[in-house]
Amino acid sequence: MTQNNRERLRQAQAAAAKQQRLTRAVGVGAAVLAVLIIGVVIAVLFQNQGKSATAGSVTPPHATSDGRAIEVYPGKAKAGAPVVELFFDYQCPVCKQFEGLYGGLMNTLASSGEIDLRYRTMTFLDQNLSNDASVRAGIAATCADVAGSYGAFHNEIFANQPAQEGAGYEDTLLRDTIPATVGISGDALTNFQACYDKQSTKAFVNTSNELGTQDLLAISKSVGTPTIHANGKAVSLSDVGAVQPTDPDAAAKLLQVFQKAAGA
Predict the structure, then answer these.
(1) What is the DSSP string of 105-171?
(2) Helix, strand or coil for residue 183?
(3) Whole-prediction pTM
(4) Burial of 142 (0-12, 13-18, 19+ CB in 10 A)
(5) Are 149 and 160 a contacting pair, CB within 8 Å?
(6) What was the pLDDT predicted at 53?
(7) Phi then psi for 98, rounded to 5 degrees?
(8) Beta carbons of 168 and 133 less than 8 angstroms apart
(9) Nearest CA to 243 among 46, 98, 136, 135?
(10) Contacts for 99 with CB less than 8 Å, ≥ 6 apart
(11) Which 3 state secondary structure label does DSSP give 87?
(12) Each residue of 220-233: pLDDT tens digit?
């Protein structure tokens, strides 16, 4: 083979190798592009799925604009009244005890405008107790807000808290028994049950728990219930506990505890 022929053969082999490399690169590029397209399609599907899941979401009428809480007596607070936030989990036994001792006093102060009472629904005990009762109870209470019976419903959930830890709340209790007890009937009952069955307020309950966790860690340095904040400052439960609920001046003394913590 002459030198010229060898040179032409070398050039032809080099061209063929270059073409093979180009073909492989195009193939890999197409595969990568296909993966990227699939990823985009999946992302869009998930986005659409998320939109469809929240399309029927309902915001409770007494929810605060930031989605953190339910204002128990909206528009009642006097100028300068401390904003008192009560963090609770419906499966928390100590929360039930607290409600029994001080819930009435706090509602008295709120209804008279001495404090702006806000309930912060937490659901972290679902994970601890391996159930979903806290979320379902939160959904029921906020659906009751839609029906105009939030406060009474809230009280009944705690009144019917199962004695056995982790037993959770039965759907029939939340969906049928408590509504009947607090007087939800007729069209209001139909709408309440549809709200509960569709979990229409679940997004709000989840957001309340997420933001509540952030606020508890930022202010109280731990996630636990019951916890009280006044104007964004931690209230000592020891100070609250020093107030005897049977004392004729209990409401006034409890107000002083909140005002002191709030710096009012």
Answers:
(1) HHHHHHHTTSSEEEEEEE-THHHHHTS-HHHHHHHHHHHHHHTT-HHHHHHHHHHT--SSTT----H
(2) coil
(3) 0.79
(4) buried
(5) no
(6) 37
(7) -60, -45
(8) yes
(9) 98
(10) 88, 155, 158
(11) strand
(12) 999 999 999 999 99
- Strand 83-89 to strand 116-122: parallel, antiparallel, or no bridges (unpaired)? parallel
| Whole-number Å distance between alpha carbons of 2 and 154 | 99
Q: Please count the other Cβ atoms lying within 10 Å of the Cβ belonging to residue 58.
A: 21
Kindly report, residue by residue over 58-73, the tens digit of the pLDDT: 999 999 999 999 999 9
Contacts for 73 with CB less than 8 Å, ≥ 6 apart = 107, 110, 111, 113, 116, 117
Q: Residue 20, Cβ neighbours under 10 Å: how many?
A: 10
Structure-token pair, residue 16: 């063929």
Nearby residues of 92 by Cβ (< 8 Å), 6 or more positions away: 125, 225, 226
SS3 201: coil
- Render the burial of 27-42: b for 16+ CB within 10 Å, e for the rest: eeeeeeeeeeeeeeee
Q: Look up residue 176 and give its amino acid.
A: D
CA 55 to chain centre: 17
Secondary structure of 8-57 in the HEC alphabet?
HHHHHHHHHHHHHHHHHHHHHHHHHHHHHHHHHHHHHHHHHHHHHHHCCC
